[in-house]
Design brief:
The complex is a heterodimer of chains A (409) and B (255).
Chain A: H1 2-15, E1 20-23, H2 32-38, E2 44-47, E3 50-52, E4 57-59, E5 64-73, E6 81-83, E7 86-96, E8 107-112, E9 115-120, E10 123-125, E11 129-134, E12 137-142, E13 145-147, E14 160-166, E15 169-171, E16 174-176, E17 182-188, E18 191-193, E19 196-198, E20 205-208, E21 214-216, E22 219-221, E23 226-233, E24 236-238, E25 241-243, E26 251-259, E27 262-264, E28 267-269, E29 273-278, E30 284-286, E31 289-291, E32 295-299, E33 304-309, E34 312-314, E35 318-322, E36 328-332, E37 335-336, H3 359-366, H4 377-388
Parallel strand pairs in A: 1-2, 2-5, 3-5, 4-6, 5-7, 6-8, 7-9, 7-10, 8-11, 9-12, 10-13, 11-14, 12-15, 13-16, 14-17, 15-18, 16-19, 17-20, 18-21, 19-22, 20-23, 21-24, 22-25, 23-26, 24-27, 25-28, 26-29, 27-30, 28-31, 29-32, 30-33, 31-34, 32-35, 33-36, 34-37
Chain B: H1 2-14, H2 16-35, H3 39-68, H4 70-77, H5 83-113, H6 117-143, H7 147-175, H8 182-190, H9 193-205, H10 207-210, H11 215-223, H12 225-252
Helix pairs in contact in B: 1-5, 2-3, 2-5, 3-5, 3-6, 3-7, 3-9, 5-6, 5-12, 6-7, 6-9, 6-12, 9-12, 11-12
Classes of the chains: A mainly beta (409), B mainly alpha (255).
Chain lengths: 409, 255
């Protein structure tokens, strides 16, 4: 028995014959390039504090590169780290001044054709693309701080860029000053969790052709155009915050050609348009809070079979706007602060249906200049008349069971 | 002149109507702030009062007061006093007491419950509208010798500014929707003090909605320093021009 135990133990030791390579100004190996060349599969490189200006570096073996106050400088010329392999960990590095190229997507960290790559606790400053992942399986991007220098939409790259990957986990990152904070294209079965994406030039999160993904508990605020989710299926969007996305074409959340998705427990606060839907079908939108937005929801006539229920609408200038005369979506059991009905049997549900689309919002949809007359007496009278006898607004767009009290989410 | 104004103010304050008006404003504002859980909504409801009720009360009260104190004015005219001075004192007295009623009735609750941008712009608009509609009232009553006719025309004026004008604007916007109307609409708002005041308050409240589409344009214009200057100077013009016209007519009038 004992013999067996010793044998197993020694086998384990033999197997984990991983070395730790120290590199840095006071170590034997001064350059990171040399350390990378020496490292074999399973080794770890500990990078000492210091500034490393070594151009573009390639990581192909299964190693861990761990830095303590180490700064990799791209001198505004080079792509700093290129990763292509499996089981690779990059941690604790500061990477700054990665180069810009109009021809290629230069990045501070670029991962191509890899699997099981983890990038964590890194601080990336002033990069074109910060983290660029393509054709990779099971990448983890965690606890990174990414600060770009905002230039124009053409001269900036994305903060965290994923293309044709799957099983990715993006967690606890802070992205600011890039073109799109987080960019997904052809990425499936992935999770974006607890990130904070703010003050990016275009979208906080840009999401295209990516199915079966979830993004949860993220904060997106002050981005040029908010968050866009397009041409995707089966996306879960839960407990996110979409705040302060202001502008002529800024949306808290823009949905375009999305089907079979789930949007719940999000908070939309002070956006020009909180939720814009175009060509979306079979989406469940429940338990969200729409507060103080210009338009809480804009549903284009191309949307069908979406269900809105148990959402709160408070302090919005317009609750729902649409551009068609028929609505194929269901609203039920929402709380509307503009509801003026009564509840005779005290079951908490209003007795008369609520029409969330005001006549005036239809007028604005047709003639934006009429925004000038918002809240004027004339418009209020027209709205009241329309409510009593709907002519212009879609007759079937009603909430038949409006809640009397704010719904605690 | 101060003395005459003071007499007018005393006379009006003794009047029960202005007391009732103050009390009405006070009760409405206080209850709005108490009932609405959201201060923004209370300000919004108050905005309706400021834009609809305030002009109506100002214009009707000032007109009735003018006709009622016609004998007093005649008496003053027999004294060695300039006509401009008499009519201006009348105006100042009426406007001052209406302003006081507004500031007591709405100003105090707003300053207590919501002393922010939207609240202050509401007070500013309210003060301007009081002065403007009082001077419109003086213009109308100086022009018409008959009391019924004066009050009628004043009601029509109010109706025009509060309701008809916006309808006309809507009509114009729809009939000419193929043309770029941004500049025109800016001009159109300047032609109605109620609209101007509404946009001024709204900019502080519905900024999210205004940031979309054409809204950004209005925001850029009205939100900027020039916009504020524009709003204030148009308001001042609306106060001064009808008053000057009224004084001119009064000076030439055969009493």
């Amino acid at each position: 028995m004992r013999l067996l135990f010793i044998t197993i133990l020694s086998i384990l030791f033999l197997r984990s014959e991983a070395r730790i390579i120290m590199a840095g100004p006071t170590a034997e190996i001064k350059e990171l390039r040399k350390a990378l060349a020496l490292a074999r599969d399973g080794d770890s490189i500990l990078l000492q504090a210091g500034i490393y200006k070594e151009g573009s570096l390639l990581i192909e073996r299964s190693i861990s590169l761990i830095g303590t106050n180490a700064i990799l400088d791209g001198e505004k010329k080079y792509q700093v780290l290129l990763v292509s392999g499996k089981n690779i960990l990059i941690s604790g590095l500061t990477i700054r001044n990665a180069g810009y190229s109009a021809m290629e997507d230069f990045a501070a960290v670029k991962v191509v054709d890899a699997s099981n790559v983890t990038i964590e606790n890194c601080h990336i400053i002033n990069a074109y693309f910060a983290i660029h992942i393509s054709n990779t399986r099971a990448v983890v991007i965690r606890n990174n701080r990414i600060e770009g220098t905002p230039r124009s939409e053409q001269l900036s790259g994305n903060g965290i860029h994923l293309w044709k990957s799957n099983f990715a986990l993006i967690e606890n990152n802070h992205v600011t000053g890039h073109r799109d904070g987080i960019y997904f294209e052809f990425v499936t079965s992935s999770t974006i969790r607890r990130n904070h994406s703010e003050k990016n030039i275009r979208y906080g999160l840009h999401f295209m052709f990516s199915n079966d993904d979830a993004y949860i508990q993220n904060i997106f605020n002050d981005n040029g155009a908010g968050v866009a989710v397009m041409y995707s299926k089966k996306v879960r969007m839960e407990a996110n915050r979409f705040d302060l996305n202001w502008g002529a074409s800024a949306y808290g959340l823009l949905l375009k050609d999305i089907t079979d998705s789930y949007i719940a427990r999000n908070i939309f606060y002070k956006n020009t348009v909180a939720l814009h839907m175009e060509g979306t079908s079979r989406i469940e939108i429940r338990n969200n809070d729409f507060r103080n937005n210009g338009w809480a929801i804009k549903v284009q006539a191309s949307c069908d079979n979406n269900r809105f229920w148990r959402n709160n609408f408070t302090g919005n200038s317009f609750d729902v706007a649409t551009n068609g005369s028929v609505s194929l979506n269901q609203f039920s059991q929402n709380y509307w602060d503009k509801y003026e009905g009564y509840d005779l049997n005290h079951d908490g549900v209003g007795d008369i249906p609520f029409r969330p689309v005001s006549m005036y919002s239809m007028i604005i949809e047709e003639n934006p200049n009429a925004l000038l007359l918002m809240r004027s007496f004339t418009v209020q009278l027209l709205d009241k008349a329309e409510k009593a006898l709907p002519v212009i607004t879609p007759g079937n767009l009603t909430d038949d069971k409006p809640m009397m009290k704010y719904i605690k989410q | 002149m101060m003395k005459l104004t003071r007499y007018v103010v005393y006379d009006i304050i003794r009047n029960k109507v202005i007391m009732a008006y103050t009390l009405f404003l006070l009760v409405v504002s206080l209850s709005l702030f108490q009932v609405e859980e959201n201060q923004g909504k209370a300000i919004l409801s108050l905005m309706n009062i400021v834009l609809i009720v305030l002009p109506l009360v100002s214009i009707v009260f000032a007109t009735i007061h003018y006709y009622n104190s016609y004998e007093f004015i005649e008496l003053m005219l027999s004294q060695p006093l300039g006509r401009t001075r008499i009519i201006f004192s009348e105006y100042a007295g009426t406007a001052l007491s209406l302003l006081m009623a507004f500031l007591l009735g709405v100003g105090i609750p707003v300053l207590i419950y919501s002393p922010d941008d939207s609240g202050l712009s509401l007070l500013f608009t309210g003060c301007c509208l009081t002065l403007i509609f009082t001077s419109l009232a003086f213009l109308a009553s100086v022009k018409a010798r008959d009391k019924a006719r004066g009050i009628g025309s004043v009601l029509l004026l109010w109706f025009y500014f509060a309701l008809i004008y916006d309808g006309l604007v809507l009509l114009i916007l729809f009939n000419f929707s193929d043309y770029p109307l941004e500049k025109i609409t800016l001009l159109l708002t300047a032609l109605n003090p109620v609209d101007l005041g509404r946009i001024f308050i709204m900019l502080k409240m519905d900024i999210s909605a205004l940031m979309g589409y054409t809204g950004a344009l209005y925001k850029d214009f009205f939100g900027s320093g020039t916009g504020l200057l524009f709003t204030s100077s148009i308001m001042v013009l609306w106060i001064v021009l009808p008053l000057l016209w009224a004084i001119r007519i009064f000076n030439k009038k055969d009493i």
